[in-house]
Amino acid sequence: MALLSDLINLNLSETTQKIIAEYIWIGGSGMDLRSKARTLSGPVSDPAKLPKWNYDGSSTGQAPGEDSEVILYPQAIFKDPFRRGNNILVMCDAYTPAGEPIPTNKRAAAAKIFSHPDVVAEEPWYGIEQEYTLLQKEVKWPIGWPVGGYPGPQGPYYCGIGADKAFGRDVVDSHYKACVYAGINISGINGEVMPGQWEFQVGPVTGIGAGDQLWVARYILERITEIAGVVVSFDPKPIQGDWNGAGAHTNYSTKSTRNDGGYEVIKKAIEKLGLRHKEHIAAYGEGNERRLTGRHETADINTFCWGVANRGASIRVGRDTEKEGKGYFEDRRPASNMDPYVVTSMIAETTILWKP
Predict the structure, then answer these.
(1) How many of the other CB atoms lie within 10 Å of CB of 271?
(2) Integer distance in angstroms from the first to the last C-alpha of the chain?
(3) CA-to-CA distance for 98 and 53, rounded, in angstroms?
(4) Superkingdom of this entry's organism (predicted)?
(5) The overall pTM is greater than 0.85
(6) CA angle at residue 241 from 336 to 232, to 5 degrees?
(7) What is d(CA 172, CA 249) in angstroms, rounded to the nearest whole number?
């Protein structure tokens, strides 16, 4: 008699050409990921060759009940680490039946910015540091913390090892390998300053691909925590008090900043970002004011400043970039629950297209 695990792990390619495609999209809150699966007649590697699909938008807060059909447009394909074989994950965005992006579709506007000839010429690269917190399922309290109580103060947990310092490493390592398998350019992981909090980095990725890859990495993480029976939180300040918040620091460079003389281009880009500080903060995640207090490695939300190797600044420039006179910089303002389509395209728009 086959066990459930045997059936879950069946290798379909032994008996059929058919594959399973898991279509993924972003729901009405802007952070809730949804997905459903369909059977395709054979392997597909080009999203343009995948069929469009639809879903009930009235059940995701994205359409009224009397006109509930929302259309999914496949945009990016990844290998499926859960079903494996030739099965795929498909990142989609959402449109009305008439072909208009629905209001929560932030990818469509980002794609327009990234397809602008001036932006294409600059080849913007992004590296996003996604912080998150693992919570106990029943009590919504960080894993490794005593229920209703607190662990020892911050200090030993950042990149820490040991059963009294690192909580949830099995989830973190599973996610790391699953992302590599899927074809996501995940570049690393580490334990964070607050116990139960972790970070993974995606990048460098060019243009719209950074948003696609980060969203699918989040999807894979949610699926793994589902299996593990823990909850992942992207709240920017999950625990009040003397505990670090969670951000999504966004590292950025362009062809001009990576070439000789790039440091001067970086300084001009940072100046432009400072002029649009309020607009960026408004788009950088919900609840960010609880995180950007000027403490716990952040700049105050109402203040824009930059510095070399300064983790208390809005924008940090690395020592290597200063020394070499070219490279990248880090926008430390985005919250952990930011939309990478919004943040990456806004940085490109402000630094490349916007004329003060």
Answers:
(1) 12
(2) 70
(3) 14
(4) Eukaryota
(5) yes
(6) 35
(7) 19
